[in-house]
Write a structure and sequence with these properties.
149 residues; mainly alpha; 4 helices; 46% helix; 0% strand; globular
Amino acid sequence: MPRPSTKKPSLSGGPTLASTRDYWTLHLRAEGKSGRTISTYLRALDKLDAFLAVRGMPRTLEGIRREHLEAFFVALGERGNAPATISILFRALRPFWGWLAEEDEIERSSMERMRAPSVPLDPPRRARRAAPGPSQPAPAPRLHRGFDP
């Protein structure tokens, strides 16, 4: 039995990110994704859609290419987003494009050959501890990974 298509005949130019959002949400829920994961995936999709609209770039699924996605990730960095944030958004969008290809909504994923942005191993500035000064004792060594008193 053929799967229902997300393509709607009333859409001029084909389906868009916005027109497939509800289908994507349903798919994520059917896969048992957590609410937080779904929220992250949808936030990334909404940010991309807003970026494309503001920049006057294509918003149809077939019109969005790798160069549009790369411009989005570059713009995120230029706006001061941390590399880890950009990486999260990248990893939240990749499954969407894979799903579209799997559902035959697009011929192939626009992110198919894209590499995830690198994230430096340095901790964020706000999480770094100040080096002990002459009047400060050195902090006690951590006994358990992930536990921070």
